[in-house]
Design brief:
Elements lengths: L1 H13 L13 E12 L2 E2 L4 E4 L2 E15 L4 E18 L8 E20 L4 E21 L12 E3 L4 E14 L5 E12 L2 E5 L6 E4 L2 E12 L1
């Protein structure tokens, strides 16, 4: 992720090499799309916490600030909202009369800097990195087994419901339309927040750090505005 950030910091110095003219009719664009979220394992109390595949989605507003070289590499800035939801498959925390972890959701807002390389007349490759903040992180519990009493309170509580976040993205875009003002994107995203503290309210000193790392495979729809 260092390359996009360096490009962002160095953009004033690169101004003579950038062209304000865009390849499409508009240099400002919006993009949205769903994804398949694969949450990486995290260390738990007695064994790793595993996650089932879940869903992700993003919505972003971007602007092309110029070009490098002979209009072959574009430089973009983006403001993006990202959401991921994963069910927990096994948490290693099952106890009689207790609750086990069930679902982890993350909502984040990030600022990205990226490059867009002109592979051919209709195909472009992109690489971007971003930093931001996840203001809404939730962790739900479920009762352990049919013998658990109805209305059992949550045992494991997420102390950190917000955290710093960062990400990297790469993929390919297929341009559509006579003026190449639309595209369909296929890509992969690596997203992570700072570690999240989880405590057991029924056990004094019961605490562990949950690693919140998601790799999502996505399809995106982008158009100039």
């Amino acid at each position: 992720m260092r390359l996009p950030l360096l490009l962002l910091l160095a953009s004033p110095a690169l101004a003579p090499a950038l062209s304000a003219q865009g390849y499409v009719s508009s240099d400002t664009y919006v993009q949205f799309g769903p994804g398949l979220a694969s949450h990486l394992d995290s260390q738990g109390y007695t064994q790793d916490i595993t996650f089932d595949n879940g869903l992700a989605g993003s919505l972003l507003l971007g602007h092309r600030i110029g070009w490098l070289g002979q209009r072959s590499v574009a430089v973009d800035l983006e403001l993006e909202g990202y959401y991921a939801d994963n069910k927990i498959g096994s948490d290693g925390l099952l106890q009689a009369g207790s609750s086990n972890l069930e679902d982890l959701t993350t909502t984040a807002v990030l600022v990205n800097a990226g490059i867009d390389w002109n592979w051919s007349d209709q195909i472009r490759m992109y690489l971007a990195g971003g930093v931001g903040y996840a203001p809404d992180i939730t962790l739900s519990n479920q009762a352990n087994g049919p013998s658990a009493p109805s209305g059992l309170p949550q045992t494991f509580e997420l102390q950190d419901t917000s955290a710093l976040a960062w990400q990297g993205k790469l993929g390919v875009r297929y341009l559509l339309g006579q003026d190449r003002n639309y595209s369909v994107n296929l890509g992969v995203r690596y997203f992570q927040t700072a570690s999240l503290a989880v405590v057991d309210r029924n056990l004094a000193g019961g605490r562990f750090d949950l690693e919140n790392t998601v790799v999502s495979f996505e399809i995106g729809f982008r158009w100039g505005i």
